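Protein modeling request. Please complete all fields; requests missing the sequence field cannot be processed.
Requester role: graduate student
Desired output: 3D structure, C-alpha cell encoding
Chains: 1
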Amino acid sequence: MVSFLLPIFVSDLKTTIKIYTIMKLNAPEKCEVIVITIDKYQHPIAWKNRIESLINSGMTIQEANSEMIQRPTIEMELHYDVNCGAFLVESAAIESTEIYNPYTGSQLQIEGEEEISESEDDEDHIVLGDGMFDGSRAQFANCFFSNATNFQIAFFCRTEGVSLEINGKQIKIK
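Delivered output (174 residues):
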C-alpha cells in the first residue's frame, strides 16, 4: 500500500490535509475470504436481488429459488483502507471487473501495475505464458474476453500464474 499527500486545500482560514492511499488487490494466495449467508427473512432485499440476478443469468424462478435455498452463501474478499475502514467485494467479481475503493472512488491496483501501459490498441501484441496465447489484442478479445483492459489482462495472468508480455515488454506480476 502506498500513501501520498494531495495538495493542501484552504477554506475559511482552515487548512485541511487529505491523505489518500493507493490500495492494492490482495494476491490470490493472500486473499482474506469471509463467507456470508443470505437469509430470506433477515436480508430480504439481498435475497430478492440475488434471485433476480440468478434469473437474469438464465435460471427460471424455481431454479433460482432452489439455488438460493441450497447455496445461500457468497464468498467475499475483505479489504481494508487504513484511512477509511473495511469493505467487502464479492470474490467472483474480482477476476472479471475493475474494483474501486468505496470510500475514495479510486481503483484498486495490483502490484506491478505501475508498469502496465494504459494505452490499449487492437494491434498491441500480447503473449501469455508458455504458448498459452501469442497474438494481437483483437485476437485476445476473441479468444478470452472482449474489451479487456491491460489491468484486467494482467490480473487474469496473475490469477492463472502465467507470464505476460505486451508489445515486447515483460509485465511483472507479483
